[in-house]
Amino acid sequence: MRVGIFVSETWGPGSTIDEIRDRAARAEALGFAGAWVPYLPWAPDAMASMQAAGQATSRIEVGSAVIPTFFFHPLALARQAATVQSAIGRPIHLGVGCSNPAIVAMHGLPFERPARHVREYLEILNAAFEVGAKPAGPREQSGFVQHAGEIFELGSIYGTPGATGMGSVLVGAIGPKMLEVTGTFADGVIGTWCDEGAIERHVAPPVRAAAAKAGREAPVIASVIATAIVPKSRVAEARDAAQAEFGFYEQNMPYKRVIDAGDAARIGDVAVIGDEEEVARRLRAYRDAGLTDFLAAPYSVAGASWASTAEKLAALEV
Question: How many Å from the N-terminal Cα to the C-terminal Cα in the chain?
Fold first, then answer.
């Protein structure tokens, strides 16, 4: 199991671009597999953040988890992703997802047929990345993407100079229909608030089955997990703090589904919070449940900061 870390704040105040650069460089020095950024109302743009993280480093992979599909036309997002990848000189992991009705409504947009929307979005992204990596010529002859679906109908010139094949396209998914779409049309899934039991029983099986049916390679099974390494004397306090901050997710249907499907009694216990021994045990349990990529989102709480959790997490033997 690979361990990545968010270098832009997910739970606390938004990180500046300079902080993202500094954290990405530190994450690379510590040996993390990936430097990840969110797309949040209080955070810098995810694409700009990935480019900043990639240009401040030389080896670490960079990814987004996740960019809302309803906010960007798929060809526009494909061009942005290909441009960022070209700018940093190595593949990126483009994490996308439909978000949720409340967030989409905040932007004055309808939240309609999300599974169908994401399916067609992925079809267009995949077509654009294939065309972009094999241009037919300059300017108007660069390439053409056509799609006739129930949500999107388009026929457009498409090209991005210097484009190469995308590292991967991952989908934030936890519902049954979305998990099936993800396995069929994407390179893997990014779950959020999924404990070990939810990964093993609810998330991994349908994604793997859909990927196998579609003839795709074994998918990435990733999860974004609030993580804090604290002294043993502060563990109960930190978990209670996480429950107080994140308890509202328990009333949100998609997240309630995966919490109910897992083993944790409450969302504060889904978070990976503990001393080094306990966090190492949880990581091994995630690995054994089938998680391929643990995406740690450091949770700042009494006894833990981004820096302290990153240092201790990198030193664990799993």
Answer: 9
Q: What is the mean pLDDT of the chain?
A: 95
CA distance 99 to 146: 25
Tokens in use for 299?
Answer: 């949770």
Closest listed residue to residue 312, CA positions, set 232, 258, 237: 232
- Residue 151, exposed/middle/buried by CB under 10 A (0-12, 13-18, 19+)? middle
pLDDT for 276 beyond 90: yes
**pLDDT for 143-172, tens place per residue?**
899 999 999 999 999 988 888 889 999 999
**pTM of structure:** 0.96
Q: Which amino acid is at 254?
A: P
Q: Sketch the domain layout of the chain as residue ranges.
A: 193-318
CB 43 within 8 A of CB 73: no
77's tokens: 């997002």
Tell me the CATH number for domain 193-318.
3.20.20.30
